[in-house]
TrEMBL record:
Organism phylogeny: Bacteria, Bacillati, Bacillota, Clostridia, Eubacteriales
Domain Transposase (putative) YhgA-like: 9-219
Gene Ontology biological process terms from the UniProt entry: DNA recombination
Name recorded for this polypeptide: Rpn family recombination-promoting nuclease/putative transposase
GO molecular function: double-stranded DNA endonuclease activity
Family: Belongs to the Rpn/YhgA-like nuclease family.
């Protein structure tokens, strides 16, 4: 369990590092959020809020990223919850409401001119809640807050409600991610739950994407994510070998690093596959020899029983001599007739 927590914490921090880069966050919004307001956001107006709102109960399970931006004179807050777990949490709307409330409390508390909070024109910033999920199972938790309220249908607009944006990494289409062709889509491509052969193919494609479309700062963030996260896909001696490969390529230009990592992974797994086949053949030979010996022994015993039966030796004595059962000897006797 501790190992799993460490793995998810590293994964959370890896994603947090990627999305804390403003250009990556803007690319994420423009590529995956199909809303008109996305076009109103300028990178230079984005402010990363260096503060976490995660509650103590969930420190081991998640991380968050908070951005503030001003659009047409209005402050907007993007709250991104990184839900990088293997299971769906059906409490998600409740948790998001708690975090959003904490953000508003923080805004009220830190309003410079306190009297403004009492003015009729005072407004809290809009909060856009975003959940990024990379579990194997499809996300099935309700998307709007009111749906977790018992009997909300009776009261319609008189109950608290909001709907969060969900991005389910493992349900994203590979071809669409390749078409988007930026750092964030590359991260999603490598984070999907696919076989190692598919990962190797994707690495070869992603090298070109990073070279063509990423700034130096984005390359740096991608390199960090890849080196820290990729080794966690493997266990045991396989993990040690992958870590060694990552270390070997870590000083290369990022596109060379990615393509060389793909090539080295391919070589490593072909080598392992070849060794596995050789071990399988060797085991097969050994099993064949052993099986042949056993069959030879059995055949020899049968021949001995036939000879003893022809000499008229008592069956009880034959049982002792051959160590075969009475049923086996009777069967041999029937075959002789």
């Amino acid at each position: 369990m501790e190992k799993d927590k460490k793995l998810y914490n590293e994964h959370d921090l890896g994603y947090k590092h990627i999305l804390s880069h403003k250009k990556n966050f803007i690319d994420f919004l423009r590529s995956f959020v199909k809303k008109e307001w996305v076009d109103l956001i300028e990178e230079e107006n984005l402010i990363l809020i260096d503060k976490e709102f995660i509650q103590e109960d969930f420190k081991e399970e998640e991380a968050d990223i908070v951005y503030k931006v001003n659009i047409d004179g209005k402050d907007i807050i993007f709250y991104v919850l990184l839900e990088l777990q293997s299971r769906v949490d059906f409490r998600m709307p409740i948790r998001l409401l708690m975090y959003m409330t904490e953000i508003w409390r923080d805004e009220l508390k830190n309003t410079e001119e306190k009297y403004k909070r009492r003015e009729k024109k005072y407004r809290l910033p809009v909060i856009v809640p975003i959940v990024l999920y990379n579990g194997k199972n499809r996300w099935t938790a309700v998307r709007s807050f009111k749906e977790i309220l018992n009997g909300y249908e009776l009261f319609e607009e008189n109950v608290v409600d909001f709907k969060y944006l969900l991005f389910d990494v493992n349900r994203m289409d590979k071809e669409e991610l390749l078409k988007i062709a930026n750092v964030v889509s590359s991260v999603f491509l490598l984070d999907q739950d696919v076989e190692i052969e598919e990962i190797i193919k994707r690495l070869k494609l992603i090298g070109r994407i990073i070279r063509s479309n990423a700034t130096k700062e984005q390359e740096k963030s991608f390199r960090s994510w890849l080196l820290n996260i990729f080794k966690n896909r493997f266990e045991g001696d396989k993990r040690d070998n992958i870590y060694k490969l990552l270390t070997e390529v870590s000083e290369m230009e990022v596109d060379d690093m990615v393509s060389n990592l793909g090539r080295k992974l391919e070589e490593e797994f072909k080598h392992r596959e070849k060794k596995g086949i050789q071990r399988g053949i060797q085991r097969g030979i050994q099993q064949g020899i052993q099986q042949g010996i056993q069959q030879g022994i059995q055949q020899g015993k049968k021949e001995m029983v036939r000879n003893l039966l022809l000499l008229g030796v008592d069956i009880e004595k034959i049982i002792k001599a051959s160590e075969l059962s009475k049923e086996d000897i009777e069967k041999i006797k029937r075959e002789m007739n």
